[in-house]
Design brief:
The chain is an alpha/beta fold. It has 2 domains: 17-257, Aspartate Aminotransferase, domain 2 (3-Layer(aba) Sandwich), CATH 3.40.640; 260-360, Aspartate Aminotransferase, domain 1. The chain has helices at residues 16-24, 44-61, 75-87, 101-110, 227-232, 242-257, 260-280, 309-318, 343-360, and strands at 5-6, 67-72, 93-98, 115-121, 144-147, 150-151, 156-157, 169-172, 189-193, 204-209, 285-286, 298-303, 321-322, 333-336. The strands form 4 sheets. A 7-stranded mixed sheet has the order 2-10-9-8-5-3-4. A 3-stranded antiparallel sheet has the order 11-12-14, covered by helices on one side. The chain has a two-stranded parallel ribbon with strand order 1-13. Helix 2 packs across helix 6 (242-257) and helix 3 crosses helix 4. The radius of gyration is 21 Å and the shape is globular. The protein starts with a strand and ends with a helix. The relative contact order is 0.16. The structure holds 4'-deoxy-4'-aminopyridoxal-5'-phosphate. The site of 4'-deoxy-4'-aminopyridoxal-5'-phosphate has 11 residues, from helix 3. Its main location: cytoplasm. Residues 4-349 form the Aminotransferase class V domain. Homodimer. Keywords: Amino-acid biosynthesis, Aminotransferase, Cytoplasm, Pyridoxal phosphate, Pyridoxine biosynthesis, Serine biosynthesis, Transferase.
Length: 361
């Protein structure tokens, strides 16, 4: 059976060369006589794998020395709690930009630990666009500003980094990290679940500026949710997700071989532009998102005649174009176009959509 074009929002398509390398090393990693899955996380071999992965990520993102990279578990969802448990000190408050379902979840979780304040966005624009810089209203006394650069479900993405002044900016980059160049210095803390642009599910990446690694915000913060503990123990306070960490390292090196984040950005921009051009040129398909807020990673669209949706999805499936159904909370379609989705996948999708319109339009 051949491989399909998998447009899933995550867990998502991984680069084929990475899968092939992992397969070739599955039983015997580089002469060790064992699989990476079977290694002690504290042994020499895995330590080398872990160090090499972090070094590749640091090169890719040009991460400054005063930032720590943490390899955690719990998904981005755990970060919705871990961020306030570490940064939302008693009496303080955190600013949130609300651009959809994931920002709302992060905000609701933080509200369990302290005061949260809406600094922009919200439901009033129907989540069809991100706020403009002049619509943002930050509290200069906030402990941090949290936002979601790319809303995976709505397909709404910031094309700029908000200016939070001296207040640390915290970003849930789950579905946009590594999709293009990024200036890490603009952020206090970046987090991302791995299962889109990094690797398999089970690994969560945190990039955090050293000065934010103090005592946790509350004495009740569990050790396993204390950033400092991970930073002090090279992310090995307890057993890390070793196999996912190893694959992430392979993905980072694959990105480097492909030309790094600049090349990724150009390719991703081209991929998204092809799909949006088709949506804009047609009355048969619709994009619910404002032009300046359209996601490069998760393109959402609907059929003007919703009754055709089932046939659209069925035809796509049988053409090897999988997982185009939108999130159950919003409906419609969603094509996730992460780094590992080849341009040929987008070309095949566009061709299928043109043909479907020709037959049913
Ligand atoms: N934030 C964003 C932007 C996401 O896309 C997702 C997952 N789709 C999450 C958070 C939750 O991630 P996890 O399932 O890894 O906890």
């Amino acid at each position: 059976m051949g491989r399909v074009f998998n447009f899933s929002s995550g867990p998502a398509v991984l680069p084929q060369p990475v899968l092939e390398k992992v397969q070739s090393e599955l039983l015997d990693w580089q002469g060790s006589g064992m699989s990476v899955m079977e290694m002690s996380h504290r042994g020499e071999d895995f330590t080398a794998i872990a160090t090499r992965a972090e070094a590749a990520l640091r090169r890719l993102l040009d991460i400054p020395d005063d930032y720590r990279v943490l390899f955690l578990q719990g998904g981005a969802t755990a970060q919705f709690s871990m961020v306030p448990m570490n940064l939302l000190r008693e009496g303080g408050s955190a600013d949130f930009i609300d651009t959809g379902i994931w920002s709302r979840k992060a905000m609701a979780e933080a509200a369990r630990y302290g005061r949260v304040r809406l600094a922009g966005g919200g439901e009033r624009n129907g989540y069809a666009r991100v706020p403009t810089p002049d619509e943002l209203d930050f509290d200069p006394a906030a402990l941090y500003v949290h936002y979601t650069p790319n809303e995976t479900i709505g397909g709404v993405e910031f094309s700029y980094v908000p200016d939070s002044g001296s207040v640390p900016l915290v970003a849930d980059m789950s579905s946009t990290i590594l999709s293009r160049p990024l200036d890490v210095r603009r952020f206090g803390l970046i987090y991302a679940g791995a299962q889109k642009n990094i690797g398999p599910a089970g690994l969560t990446l945190v990039i955090v500026r050293e000065d934010l690694l103090g005592e946790p915000a509350t004495a009740a913060t569990p050790t396993v949710f204390d950033y400092r503990v991970y930073a002090d123990n090279a992310s090995m306070y307890n057993t890390p997700p070793t196999f996912a960490w190893y694959i992430a390292g392979e993905v980072f090196e694959w990105i480097e071989r492909e030309g790094g984040l600049k090349a990724m950005g150009e390719r991703n921009h081209r991929k998204a532009a092809k799909l949006y051009a088709l949506l804009d040129a047609s009355d048969f398909y619709r994009s619910p998102v404002a032009v300046d807020s359209r996601s490069w990673m998760n393109a959402t669209f609907t059929l003007a005649d919703e009754a055709l949706s089932a046939a659209f999805l069925e035809g796509a499936e049988s053409s090897g174009l999988k997982n185009l159904k939108g999130h159950r909370s919003v409906g419609g379609m969603r094509a996730s176009l992460y780094n590992a989705m080849p341009e040929a996948g987008v070309d095949a999708l566009v061709e299928y959509m043109r043909e479907f319109e020709r037959v049913h339009g």
